[in-house]
Specification:
Layout: H1 3-8, H2 14-22, H3 36-54, H4 56-69, H5 73-87, H6 89-92, H7 97-110, H8 117-128, H9 138-151, H10 161-183, H11 185-191
Helix pairs in contact: 2-3, 3-11, 4-5, 4-10, 5-10
Length: 202
């Protein structure tokens, strides 16, 4: 769900971005005809996820929400970290958030020929909903968690995730920024691509 962070970490390569974006939608048998750079983007997506899941600061954030969110606490942290990226955006990019999201939407539309048909059909609706901004404020977060709640297979407390955010806002904001100091290095360590020009690393 944390599309914004994934897109920020894709650098300026449109095929990497396409692969990163489609990673959770593509099936193994659909990868056979993909360009190596698109495949590298898929690998990058999974490397980012694995790195995030194993990072101690993220584990601490998950533990913070465990009493209220239970087994879904990693999902909630994932989404809330995209919220914290939006409110801290100027720390990580010299490009405005609006310009960045517009560029990503244009790039994805131009690359949609590599997407599975179901994602190709879904993409215009996602862009119309401004999906990269689905976590930008409390109202959008509530709507995002409502959608996830409807799809969840087990009992959950997604309906109170925005209350958890209010309770732990400052702590989680610090956790996000601590974690993000290391985020771009995964690009070098795991898939050998150049990190984005994140301002905080200058």
């Amino acid at each position: 769900m944390n599309f914004l962070a994934h897109m920020l970490l894709t650098c300026e390569d449109s095929e990497l971005m396409a692969g990163n974006f489609m990673a959770d939608f593509v099936l193994n048998h659909e990868k056979k005809e993909l360009h190596p750079n698109v495949l590298k983007g898929i690998e990058l997506h999974h490397s980012i996820d694995n790195f995030t899941d194993q990072h101690m600061t993220v584990k601490n954030a998950v533990s913070l929400l465990r009493p209220t969110q239970g087994k879904y606490s990693p999902v909630v942290v994932d989404i809330l970290f995209d919220y914290f990226l939006t409110i801290n955006w100027d720390k990580y990019s010299s490009e405005s958030l609006e310009k960045f999201t517009s560029k990503v939407y244009t790039t994805l539309m131009l690359q949609d020929d590599v997407f599975p048909s179901r994602l190709k059909e879904l993409l215009p609706r996602m862009i119309s909903d401004d999906f990269l901004m689905s976590c930008k404020n409390e109202d959008r977060l509530i709507k995002t968690f409502e959608r996830i709640k409807k799809r969840a297979k087990f009992d959950n407390n997604f309906n109170r995730a925005h209350l958890d955010l209010a309770d732990f806002h400052d702590i989680m904001n610090d956790q996000f920024n601590e974690f993000s100091l290391t985020l771009s290095y995964i690009l070098i360590l795991s898939v050998n691509v150049e990190p984005p020009q994140m301002k905080i690393l200058d």
